[in-house]
Amino acid sequence: MSMITIVTPTYNRLSCLPRLYRSLVMQTCRQFVWLVVDDGSTDATENYIRGLRRGSDFPVEYVRKDNGGKHTALNVAIQEVETELFFIVDSDDVLTEDAVETILNDWSRLKDDGLCGMSYLRGYDEETVIGDLFPKDEERDTFINMRFNRGIEGDKAEVWATRCLKEFGGFPEFEGERFISESVLWIKMARKYQMTFRNKIIYITEYLSGGLSKTGRSLRFKCHEGMAYGSLETMTKEFSLRIRIKQALLYVVYCKFGKHSFRQILTCPHPLLVSVCYIPGLLLYHYWKHKYR
Question: What is the mean predicted confidence (pLDDT) over 185-202?
Fold first, then answer.
């Protein structure tokens, strides 16, 4: 019986999917389901995945939806997945051969009701870590404290307890916006649950042109409502003052890209902090507006 679903949200990435599929075929443990959520692709993604379903020796599931962005595809997956674990693997990335085996072995040792997931390292290859190592292998902490307050940088490979994702209901969706930071949901879970952090690379990332990691800040400015929401989530008491000030500045910037008035900007749960950061945030908005126009 499968314990983990590997969830791949995809949009017009037919050229990348065979490479990911080969890395799944090479897994030393086959106790997983591969769920592809097609976010309205216009290429032959659907035909390719449906073709794989006939010959694969592990379950391959396919769901198609209208284009709405990665977070909306993940919301569909959160509703669909029934396995104990939920692992997001992007269509342009691959897994190490022992990834699934490592995850399942670790979960069987470490899981309890206070744990919402486990975080592993990503690498440019199997030896070169993206960003920082965790301070200690198998340390237990919250996502908020490890990634924000302790400043551990770089993309990581998070594996989640599906029950926790369902408990918090997925990602907020804003009309017309196709991006929101995934950390918004991870932060909500971190207010109640801890994670285990492992210094092991199980996920190899290639940052392709046109991917979310490459489109960067300009995409965030176009999705200003979701980004402002995310900044507000990151200004609560669980975060260090340094992080809260940074997010207050960003909140002002995103609100200005959304053409919010000063009164609207201050109508939030943190009006004092935002008012202190308003002028420098306004200057930052004008600088970025000129730079990314």
Answer: 98
The confidence score (pLDDT) of residue 55 equals 80
**C-alpha span between 270 and 90 (Å, rounded):** 35
Q: Are 268 and 235 in contact (CB under 8 A)?
A: no
- Region 141-165: mean pLDDT is 98
| pLDDT 10s digits, 24-49 | 999 999 999 999 999 999 999 999 99
Tell me the residue length of the chain: 293
